[in-house]
Amino acid sequence: LHTRLTAIKYVIFFGLLAISLYDLGTAEKFAEVEPFKTAIILKFVREWWFVAFAVTLLVAGLFIERFFCRYLCPLGAGIALPGRFR
Questions:
Q1: What are the C-alpha distances in Å from 57 to residues 13, 14, 18, 21, 26?
Q2: Cα 15 to chain center, whole Å?
Q3: How confident is the model at residue 9 (pLDDT cuts 50, 70, 90)?
Q4: Among 30, 51, 72, 81, which is 20 to 30 Å from 18 by CA?
Q5: Quick check: 15 pLDDT over 90?
Q6: Which distant-in-sequence residues (6+ apart) come within 8 Å of 66 by Cβ?
């Protein structure tokens, strides 16, 4: 299950990359998969679905160490990708 879930972040990364090549404004909307704008910058003062997503990730992080980083983070996938081609 762990190996299958780690592939999700690469799918998100390549999806964001493809969308950004098509339309940068749309890519900015889809980049909201990163919950840090909701949690840190706006201090959870956003629409309810952004807050629910961020809280869900926080709760998942209580049970699975670094849940977002391991399974969803597109930035981590982009950084880790060159390491796979050594």
A1: 18, 21, 25, 28, 23
A2: 11
A3: very high
A4: 51
A5: yes
A6: none
Between CA 86 and CA 81 the distance in angstroms is: 10
pLDDT in tens, 22-47: 999 898 888 888 888 878 888 888 88
Sign of CA dihedral 61, 64, 70, 74: negative
Angle among Cα 53, 59, 63 to the nearest 5 degrees reads 135
In sign, the C-alpha dihedral spanning 57, 60, 66, 70 is negative
Which tokens belong to 4? 């299958």
Classify 23 as helix, strand or coil: coil
Give residues with Cβ within 8 angstroms of 68, minimum separation 6.
35, 57, 60, 61
